[in-house]
Structures are given as structure tokens and as C-alpha cells.
Amino acid sequence: MAETPGVPYRTTGSTLLHPLSQLLGIPLDQVNFVACQLFALLAAFWFRIYLSPSNVSSVVRHAFATLFGIYFAVFCFGWYSIHIFVLVMMSYGIMNIASIPNIHRYSFVVAMGYLTLCHISRIYIFNYGILTTDFSGPLMIITQKITTLAFQVHDGIGRQPEDLTAEQNRLAVKIRPSLLEYLSYLLNFMSVIAGPCSNYKDYIAFIEGRHVHMKLLEVNWKQKGYDRLPDPSPTGAVIYKLCITFVSLLLFLTLTKTYPVTYIVDSQFINNTSFLSRLGYLYIVMQASKPKYYFAWTLADAVNNAAGYGFSGVDEQGNFHWDLLSNLNIWNIETATSFKMYIENWNIQTAAWLKRVCYDRAPWYPTALTFILSALWHGVYPGYYFTFVTGILMRLASRAIRNNYRHYFLSSKPLKGIYDIVTWFVTQLAVCYTVAPFVMLAVEPTIKLYKSMYFHMHILSLLLLLVLPIKPQDHTMRQIQNQVTHNSVKNKKEK
Question: pLDDT digits over 460-484, tens only?
Fold first, then answer.
């Protein structure tokens, strides 16, 4: 994380912590980011205890969350935070002016369009290839929230319940939000800096004090020996997540310096090492790049939990879980035996957003369209598009293998064990191969890397797709079933 010698500190936000940045040898924008998140953690505890729904009104909670969120944005990003506020106000105008049949379309086009323009300008404002904690990060989260709410308002007001899936019905918003509710949802201090994106109805339930209560009512507590509803505390979950955050930070500070990503495209390294050595080093380098994401996302999750937000329910053993807003499952990531399993446990809330606004609604090619939207949302660096195009191939190839061969290995535990080990090994290598361009960003190092790897994953994936029979996707079958159900309901009404 130390800055490149001769490069001055770079930030558009406050310079108050510049002496601390110099002392630690860490870029000022990153110091501001961590400082804001740690302050948000303390504010979240205070918010839960002293501004609880039993002590103050929802208006006070909305106002406090919004004002602190605005302050954090200005502190971290300075005048560049105006981009965040401009997009929020434009989107609120659409929310109130646009017709319900088009509200989701206009919101999506404006939010994604503005985000894309900011991504393009970012390349010219900041040095190409240097990822900084700039305003585009919060803008990406706010884009998710804007489009999520717009689709849910459209579902709640503009569509019939029988036309919606069970999840769309549950999350549908029946009334357009007020200005304060809208600002609080988009700019609250718990998620304005690092997210994650949450559903509007869940957030409003949290502000109004119904969030935990609703989940507890799903359990019969009398059968468990309780006379009244328990009062689950998030303190244990917060401490656990802070421990993960601390370990992730240590790993990032040590592994990233030891295994730089640039080494995998160094000409001397490529010429003097075997293919298997290069493949092994690629795996190590990609592993070393993960802890920074583990750190940022787990800390953000802890901040929300500290405020009392993120309760997901009770398991069969009566344990309370605070993972409603968790953005990753580290164990499932590191032990994933399929490309699908890996993706589902990495950046979980973004995957949920992509599913709700694209995959579940796309009439054709849902996988390809979802990957394209994901690439556009992430930015305009060429490496992102190499990753997501390669990801489409990997996902389709892994699905083809699973559909055609997995059932042969389920007859006994030893066979299933062998299958899991082989698929884990292949999945981890395939993911590293796929995401390498995402880390390198530019075209030249990406092509150089894939040439050194002989494009083997691309070739194998294409061969598998050409040779193996493709079975109907679950998505297509669900669409057919939903259409049949809708038609039968419609026919009954007409009769």
C-alpha cells in the first residue's frame, strides 16, 4: 500500500490526516477511507444505543444517517462528491416525475449513463492503472440502490402481484419514497463509502425499528421455552467481523508486496519458467490480491451490524445470524467447487443486484447480459471486459460439465470426494485465469499473460461447449413455467 517513490499524495478529499499518511507510508485517500469507516463504526454503535427507534422518531434517524453520510462523502472525496449528489437528485426527480411504466427504464439509463461518464473521465483525471478510493466507488453503490428501488417501485405500483416472482412480490414498494427517505436510503453513513447495496424495504424497516422484530416473528419462541421475544445483540458478530478485518489487513500489507501482480507478465519470468510454474504463481498472485476486498467488505458489514442493521434471522439451533448484508463468504470462496459457487459467494450484494435487475428480467441470454452489465458497472478499463467475456465462457463450460457428468459421481462418497477435489482445483485455477485482467486493467499485459498461458482456458472452454450437449437452463424453464402460470391465472379471471 506504500506509494510509489516520487509520486505525490493524491486525494480530492480532506488533507487533515496527511501527517498520519506520511507517518504510515500509506496513500492519503486510503487513510481517509479507513478513518471514515472506523469513525462510522463508532457512530453506528452510538446510533443503535442512543438513537434507537424507542428513543427518537424515524425522521431523526433518517436525518442523522443522511447528514453523517454526506459529511463522510465530502471528507473523503471533496468537491468530487458533487457527482454523487447530482446523480441522487436527478434520480429523485425521475422517481417523482416519470410514469410508473417507465420509471425503472429512465432510472436505469440515467444512473448507468452518468456512472459510465464518470468512469470514462476517471481514466483521464487519475493515472491510468492506479486504483484509488475515489468517488466512483460510492457512485457505483448508489447506482445499484437507485436502480434497485426504481425496479421495486415499478413492481409494487405498476405490475400485478401474479406477474411477479415470490422475491419480487416480497420486495415490491407500494408507495414512492419521500425526499428524506430517499436521501437516507442512498446516502446513509453506514453504506455511503463502501456499501453494500440493500433493499429499500429492509432499510426502512431498520430505521422504523421493525427490522429485527419481523425476522424474530418467523420463529415459534414458545416451543423454544421463551416467554417473550429475545433481543439479539450484534456485538458478537461485529467483533468476529473486526477480527477478520484485522487479519485481512495484515495479509494485504504483507502478501501484496511479496507477490506483485506485475511479475506474472515480466518477460524474464515468462521466458525462464515453465508453464506449470507460471500457472502456480498466477494462483498465488491472485490469492494475494483478495485480502483488500475481504478487509473493505467485512468492515462495511461490521459497520452496518453495529448500527443494528443486517439481522438475517435464526437458524434451527436458535443461533442469531447477522449476514443479511454480508458481501462475501470466505470459506465458500476458498472451497468453491464450481464457477457458479465462487461467483455466488463473492461480492454477494452486487450479484444479488445483477440478478434482480438483469438476470431475472432478461428475456434472452440472461448470463451474457448479466456479465455485460457487470462489466459496464465496474468501469471502462479493458481488463474488466476481458474478465467478463472470459467469465461467460467459463460459466457456460462449467455448467455443461456439471450437467453432463456430475450425476455419475454421486453414487458413492469416494467418487463424490474425488469429483469435489478435482472440481475445486480446476475452479480455483479457472477463476485466477479469468480475473487476472481485472487486476491488470490494460490490454497489453492481459494479452501478454494469456499468450504465456497459451490461451488454454479459452480453448478448453470452447471445445467443451462445442462437444458437450447443452441442456436447457433453469432460467429458461422458470420463464416458461411463469408464463404458463400467468396464462392460467389470466384465463381463470376472464372466465
Answer: 999 999 998 876 555 544 554 454 4
